[in-house]
Design goal:
CATH architecture of the largest domain in chain B: 3-Layer(aba) Sandwich
Helix content of chain B: 40-55%
CATH class of the largest domain in chain B: Alpha Beta
Structural class of chain A: mainly alpha
Radius of gyration of chain A: 24 Å
Largest sheet of chain A: none
Oligomer: heterodimer
Number of helices of chain B: 24
Radius of gyration of chain B: 26 Å
Strand content of chain B: 5-15%
Number of strands of chain A: 0
CATH superfamily of chain A: MetI-like
Shape of chain A: globular
Helix content of chain A: over 70%
Order of helices and strands of chain A: HHHHHHHHHHHHHHHH
Strand content of chain A: under 5%
Structural class of chain B: alpha/beta
CATH topology of the largest domain in chain B: D-Maltodextrin-Binding Protein, domain 2
Strand order of the largest sheet of chain B: 2-1-3-11-4-14
CATH topology of chain A: MetI-like fold
CATH superfamily of the largest domain in chain B: Periplasmic binding protein-like II
CATH class of chain A: Mainly Alpha
Distance between the termini of chain A: 14 Å
């Protein structure tokens, strides 16, 4: 353990690094710790006119309401489904891209691919969803292709079975390039001598990838995966809000969209805060769990 | 090693952030917002609940002249659309707002939700602000207004109205129905409402058809549902054009909203509460007639008569389809219809859009349901307890302006001689300033007047609706409102008690979500209509009977009021 003296010493030595982290700490205190006081309203029936001090106390009533809510299982199920689909498909995609790019020798081609793939990251979600909406319409681009091959035109966004593919594929398209940057950076840090040694030992391309590149990437992958697990219930609600509607609620309504509809549209502030709190507790469980597992398997953990 | 420590530190903080971010969102420290509540509570205790209409005559009428002198500065949050963004950066440049300030002598700071924001969201967030604006304009129900007043957020205006808003008070007393429609359950008045001149303004959504195609096909104007089907089939075969609409204007019973009600026309049911044939409040979705209407829509959907994109399109996408000759029949709003007519003229497509009657179940029967509104709109301006007594009085006098003759004309039509003149019959007509405006008439109206889109604290004139729409659109309204039994089924604005209102919102929100979802599933055929009974059964288990009882009780109290 660090002694007080060591901390002071470390501080003196790295004051600039500590300075750099300062804005982040201020941000966290202001936007994450200070508002925590407001969690109290999860145990109240909060009325804006009465404020936190005078709103009636209802104990765990809001939580009970949520567990009894007829949509409870549905939103929880959808949240987990989308989250795990994300981990299954969206998460490995950039790793794959990074591995492939790593093998490309021609540098202008590599750079072009990189630029093209991370451009979509800079398009606002509203615009992306606008595009998806247009493309999925019965007279949209995708249907033009389907019709060209003799298929029947149909609006894709009103089909429940199409929601996940649309959601996942567009997600990969938007973020694959951007997320691959961190892996490419890690790859650049792998000692080239290892490759040379492997080559001399007669290792082929695939074997080099299997025994040098992937193990080199492993710490980064496991760290990002643990972080991802900690967000298992936090699905960006923006995109779902823009793409779902009554017809696809059954597969698309997730906890965060439900919180939004309840809390901000129906003004049930306390109820949605309670759901949010529940959400966070599950997230912590997953984060800690994933971290434990990762350590057990001999990989590095976050803490 | 060093890097590892930093990693750890960051890791822990990050984890904490993620975990707590959601829980913390959407709440505010509200200590300050309650400070003004003293004034509010004094108010409530100060008067007997009963006030009679005779009171207005007893009040010594002080001369109320505009512009007011030495008026206080006020702020106003409104859910209404801000002035046209393409013309003005914000309201401070808006000629209408500037003129209003000159005419009333009251400086008002307008606060609008961000463009494109969900107004319910913006409103609910605004309510949790530490300091509220002086006035709030929103679609707030009588029972919600009552709750706000109980919590000391807004003033009870009942005792102030006769003295400080005499013109509004006089208007309310001109018809017992009006007075009844603005009173909360405790008989008090908590806001100044927007009103309309009559039925003509209340109905602005209805069926429209391509008359040119109808003639080409040699068909008559469709009257019954069978006629509709015949026309839709003919249009599809000949022009590959469909029945297209947007959920905002005609949502087929998918979501309940106060404005764009869905009527699966022809039938007397509606998506939500209505007065049934026995004079009882009933939920439309539970009726046999609702099932029948879903059958019709499902059949049309199966036959490919309904444009699939109707469920996801917005007004602009539909407008493009209309211009592209992909739509032959629609249910739309006047403003959209006017756009289509103007587009057709500009592009020379020859499309001749006219309004037609809502369909009937059979020949010779009146139409059942239409989109309609009462003379009291849902829009209400409430005065918050952030106002001192003096500011409250200024606010009331300012709100009263819209109900004076001069103010009503200004808000509806602008300044006489500048934007409008009265013709020989005394009807207002736009001047060249509006007619020849480089941005077009509809943008010009938005520059100079205030009652065009949404009913603010004034009486929206029927002439205004006629003047801002194409002639055929204005005529369409008569097709929609003539020969209808609609008023028999309409539930008036009900006022729930505090207790009722809390139970009701707990129970009814999931019910309305469920109904919306199922309606769409039934229409698209994802769920067979054979399961309609199971749907009803589920509604019972969700507590629909309790909600019905609350509505029924409130309705009976309304009738007794």
């Amino acid at each position: 353990m660090l002694s007080g003296k060591a901390i002071v010493k470390d501080f003196k030595k790295n004051k600039l690094i500590y300075l750099m982290v300062l804005p982040v700490i201020i941000y966290l205190i202001l936007f994450c710790y200070k508002p925590m006081y407001g969690i109290i309203i999860a145990f109240q029936r909060f009325r804006p006119g009465l404020g936190i001090e005078r709103s009636p106390w209802v104990g765990l009533n809001n939580f009970v309401r949520f567990f009894k809510d007829i949509y409870f299982w549905r939103v929880v199920k959808n949240t987990f489904t989308i989250s795990f689909l994300n981990i299954l498909f969206t998460f490995p995609a950039p790793i794959l891209l990074a591995l492939l790019l790593n093998e490309v020798q021609c540098s202008w081609f590599k750079r072009t691919v990189q630029t093209v793939t991370y451009l979509p990251h800079f398009i606002a979600m509203v615009v992306v969803c606008g595009l998806i909406n247009q493309f999925c319409r019965s007279d949209g681009l995708i249907n033009d292709v389907i019709a060209f091959f003799g298929g029947e035109r149909a609006n894709l966004l009103i089909k429940t079975e199409m929601f996940y593919p649309i959601y996942i594929i567009s997600g990969i398209w938007k973020e694959i390039g951007w997320s691959s940057i961190i892996y490419l950076a890690t790859l650049a840090g792998i000692d080239q001598e290892q490759y040379e040694a492997a080559k001399i030992d007669g290792a082929g391309r695939i074997q080099q990838m299997r025994y040098i590149t992937l193990p080199g990437l492993m710490p980064t992958i496991s760290m990002l995966l643990i972080l991802k697990m900690g967000q298992v219930l936090n699905i960006g609600m923006e995109k779902i809000l823009l793409l779902y509607h009554e017809m696809t609620y059954e597969v698309a309504d997730v906890i965060s969209t439900y919180v939004y509809r309840k809390g901000l549209i129906d003004a049930d502030y306390s109820y949605s805060t309670a759901i949010g709190l529940f959400n966070s507790i599950v997230n912590i469980v997953f984060l800690v769990g994933a971290n434990k597992i990762s350590k057990k398997l001999g990989q590095s953990g976050l803490f | 090693m060093k890097r590892n420590r930093l990693n750890k530190f960051l890791g822990i903080t990050l984890a904490g952030t993620m975990a707590l971010g959601l829980a913390a969102c959407g709440n505010q420290n509200n200590a300050e917002s309650t400070t003004g509540s003293n004034a509010g509570t004094v108010e409530q205790g100060s008067s007997a609940a009963e006030e009679s209409t005779a009171e207005s005559t007893e009040v010594v009428e002080e001369e109320l002249t505009y512009p007011l002198k030495d008026a206080s500065k006020l702020s106003m949050w409104t859910y209404n659309q801000p002035p046209v963004a393409s013309i003005y950066a914000d309201w401070t440049e808006s000629l209408y707002h500037i003129g209003l300030q000159e005419n009333t002598g009251v400086e008002v700071e307008w606060i609008y939700p961000a463009a494109g924001a969900n107004v319910d969201e913006a409103y609910n967030l605004m309510l949790t602000d530490e300091v509220l604006p002086n006035m709030i304009t929103n679609d707030t129900s009588l029972s919600d207004a009552l709750l706000l007043a109980r919590d000391g957020m807004i003033y009870d205006l009942t005792d102030y109205l006769p003295e400080y808003a005499p013109d509004y008070w006089e208007y309310l007393n001109s018809d017992p129905e009006l007075l009844r429609s603005v009173k909360a359950d405790d008989g008090r008045i908590y806001g100044v409402y927007g009103h309309t001149e009559g039925d003509y303004n209340g109905t602005y959504i209805g069926p429209v058809i391509r008359q040119d195609w109808l003639k080409e096909c040699g068909l008559d104007m469709p009257v019954t549902l069978e006629d509709w089907e015949e026309v839709l089939v003919a249009f599809k075969d000949k022009y590959n054009a469909k029945f297209g609409f947007t959920k905002k204007r005609y949502h087929m019973g998918i979501a309940s909203g106060t404005n764009a009600q869905a009527t699966i026309f022809a039938y007397s049911t509606i998506d939500g509460w209505y007065v049934n044939k026995d004079g009882q409040i009933a939920l439309g979705q539970m009726d046999e007639e609702w099932k029948e209407s879903l059958e019709v829509l499902h059949r049309w959907y199966d036959m490919g008569l309904i444009d699939q994109d109707s469920f996801t399109m917005d007004d602009n996408a539909l407008r493009a389809k209309v211009l592209n000759n992909e739509v032959g029949v629609s249910i739309t709003a006047l403003s959209q219809m006017t756009n289509w007519i103007n587009d057709a003229q500009a592009q020379g497509t020859g499309a001749d859009w006219v309004g037609m009657e809502y369909p009937r179940v059979a020949e010779g029967v009146a139409t059942s349901r239409i989109q309609s509104g009462s003379r009291t709109s849902a829009t209400v301006t409430m005065i918050t307890t952030t106002c001192s007594e003096e500011e409250l009085i200024t606010a009331l006098k300012w709100l009263n302006y819209g109900f004076t003759e001069e103010g009503g004309m200004y808000i509806n039509f602008g300044n006489e001689g500048e934007t409008y003149t009265l013709d020989a019959d005394g009807n207002p007509q736009w001047t060249d300033l509006i007619k020849n405006d480089p941005d077009g008439v509809s943008a010009a109206v938005k520059k100079y007047t205030g009652a065009h889109s949404g009913v603010v604290a004034t009486i929206q004139a029927a002439d205004l609706v006629k003047l801002i729409n194409a002639e055929t659109s204005a005529a369409a309204v008569y097709e929609w409102i003539d020969n209808t039994d609609n008023s028999k089924y309409v539930v008036p604005k009900l006022a729930l008690t505090e207790e009722e209102s809390i139970t009701y919102s707990d129970k009814f929100t999931p019910i309305s979500d469920y109904c919306a979802e199922m309606a769409l599933k039934f229409i698209l055929g994802e769920e067979s209509l054979d399961n309609f009974d199971a749907f009803i059964e589920k509604l019972h288990t969700m507590g629909v009977d309790e909600c019905q009882a609350i509505q029924q009780a409130a309705y009976e109290r309304y009738l007794a009021k």
